[in-house]
């Protein structure tokens, strides 16, 4: 989990997507997150975390529903929601933390 600390301890916002390959809603989020990453450029990071490969982290963060999206900045969680989101909503949310 020390790697996780390195991911979120940044001055730029980090959008995390906790997903599973078998989940249809998560599959639907892939192109949305690509659009978000492209729109935000180097002002933010978009990181996908497979809950199957990172069970310990998912449990520690109490990820129950998929997809679960979180925004971190300076190591602190700023926003969290489970379920699908559209690109414009996510871009607007992340921009609040520039």
From TrEMBL:
Thioredoxin domain: residues covered: 1-98
> What is the source species?
Aequorivita echinoideorum
PANTHER family under this entry?
Answer: GEO12009P1
Which InterPro entries does its entry note?
Thioredoxin (IPR005746), Thioredoxin-like_sf (IPR036249), Thioredoxin_domain (IPR013766)
Record bears the keyword Transport: yes
What keywords sit in the KW lines? Disulfide bond, Electron transport, Redox-active center, Transport
Q: Which family does it belong to?
A: Belongs to the thioredoxin family.
Coiled-coil intervals in this record? none
Domain of life where this protein originates: Bacteria
Name of the protein in its database record: Thioredoxin family protein
Membrane-spanning parts: none
Q: Which Gene3D superfamilies match?
A: Glutaredoxin
């Amino acid at each position: 989990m020390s790697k996780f600390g390195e991911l979120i301890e940044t001055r730029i916002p980090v959008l995390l997507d906790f997903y599973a390959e078998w989940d249809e809603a998560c599959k639907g989020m892939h192109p949305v997150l690509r659009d978000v990453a492209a729109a935000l450029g180097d002002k933010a990071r978009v990181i996908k975390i497979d809950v199957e490969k990172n069970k310990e982290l998912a449990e520690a963060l109490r990820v129950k529903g998929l997809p679960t999206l979180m925004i971190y900045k300076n190591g602190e969680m700023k926003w969290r929601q489970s379920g699908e989101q559209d690109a414009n909503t996510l871009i607007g949310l992340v921009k609040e933390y520039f």
